Amino acid sequence: MVPIALTIAGSDSGGGAGIQADLKAFSALGVFGASVITALTAQNTRTVSMVEPASPAMIAAQIAAVFDDLDLRAVKLGMLGGPEAIATVADGLAGRALPVVLDPVMVAKSGDRLLPVAALDALRKLLLPRATLLTPNLPEAADLLGCAPAQDEAGMTRQGHALRAMGPQAVLMKGGHAAGPDCVDLLITEHGTTRLIAPRITTRNTHGTGCTLSAAIAAGLAQGMTLEAAVTGAHDYLQGAIAAADQLQVGSGHGPVHHFHAVWQNG
């Protein structure tokens, strides 16, 4: 049977992030994707012009429907939108023994805020303790901790441990917002810290990188990989997707990464 992963996130009408990016990443990596849509967004590569949350009842019904019928092996959480949606998702996952990758989506690439500040407490209390892996970028980690973003690897390490103390089994501190010729991510687990490094690629087409990475990790977990193997494989997959992003030429702003860079003939 093909492994099945579930994404619980918002829809991106531009196709580069959110549910759309997650399903593309699942498919590119050989995993069947199911979805629970938490919000509709009107967005493109330049801006988010409108966000309309799904009702808690609809979110709960979608979760119940997919779990009732599909043999899900992993869950990825993305844009949740607000405290009611967060509580609904937490209730829907209660008692279910499967890995959860939590990408704390807060701000779109365009700079538009996707998670109200008022929802941070619910995210901390209800979902961080449920996460197998938390995957914040540096501004998101700072928001969750109520401090300034880390400026170097030592700061990333300290913040990663502080976040892990809030409940997730492991934390992947993503260094894409840092400076320097290399991009360094730190996987912090109970066993120690793994450093993942890649040359920083010069491109403005990075829309959906966080969604794609967390979805790729969830795909690896759905296939039965260890956390370390899933993170390493997803890291390599994302580097290829970013390196090929300029081939797509989608939109006039921050375009998407190339999810199918290893499949399409022009990739």
Structural class from helices and strands? Answer: alpha/beta
Number of domains: 1
Shape: globular
Mean pLDDT: 93
| Poorly predicted tracts of residues | none
What is the fold-level CATH name, i.e. the topology?
UDP-N-acetylmuramoyl-L-alanine:D-glutamate ligase
The CATH homologous superfamily is termed Ribokinase
Q: How widely separated are the two ends? A: 28 Å
H/E element string?
Answer: EHEEHEHEHEHHEEEHH
Read across the widest sheet, the strand sequence of neighbours is 3-2-1-4-5-6-7-8-9
CATH class division: Alpha Beta
Largest sheet, described in full? 9 strands, mixed
Task: State the helical fraction.
Answer: 25-40%
Written account of the structure:
Helix 2 (56-69) runs parallel beside helix 3 and helix 5 packs across helix 6 (153-164). The chain is 36% helix and 22% strand. The radius of gyration is 17 Å and the shape is globular. The protein has a nine-stranded mixed beta sheet, sandwiched between helices. It is an alpha/beta fold. The model has no long low-confidence stretch (mean pLDDT 93). A hairpin with an 8-residue loop joins strand 7 and strand 8.
Topology:
Layout: E1 4-12, H1 18-28, E2 32-43, E3 48-53, H2 56-69, E4 72-77, H3 83-93, E5 100-102, H4 120-127, E6 133-134, H5 138-145, H6 153-164, E7 170-173, E8 182-189, E9 192-199, H7 209-222, H8 227-243
Helix pairs in contact: 1-7, 2-3, 3-4, 5-6, 7-8
Q: Summary?
A:
The protein has eight helices and nine strands.
